């Protein structure tokens, strides 16, 4: 089945843009899967790290309220310069959970060494 994914990134003013998570939209199931990094201290100061740590729960809650498609539209319309989302890319997957893990490994874990 075709599914869509976007990469969430954090851009600290004056710093690099760092990938922080993956949003995976399973359109046939109308399900959004979210995976964000667990360690914020190496990319953000204390105040930003506290905000970023709450992001996953907020995304899940908004997804329940707005639905998966509604959340993606909301994010595309409202994200700031600090939190960014890439345009969605469509890929084929028979196992969305494994695909989410693989995408996270490639786009986020693979870039963590570059963020330090």
List the uncertain runs: none
Q: In angstroms, what is the radius of gyration?
A: 14 Å
Class inferred from helices and paired strands: alpha+beta
How far apart the termini lie comes to 36 Å
List the helices and strands in order: EEEHEEHH
What's the multimeric state? single chain
Write down the overall geometry.
globular
Secondary structure tally: strands: 5
What fraction strand? 25-35%
Major sheet characteristics: 5 strands, antiparallel
Task: Name some characteristics of this structure.
5-stranded antiparallel β-sheet; 5 strands; single chain; alpha+beta; 3 helices; 116 residues; globular
Q: How would you briefly describe this protein structure?
A:
By secondary structure, the protein is an alpha+beta fold. The chain contains three helices and five strands.
Describe the structure.
- The chain has one domain.
- Helix content is 42%, strand content 28%.
- The protein contains three helices and five strands; from the N terminus they run βββαββαα.
- It is globular and about 40 Å long.
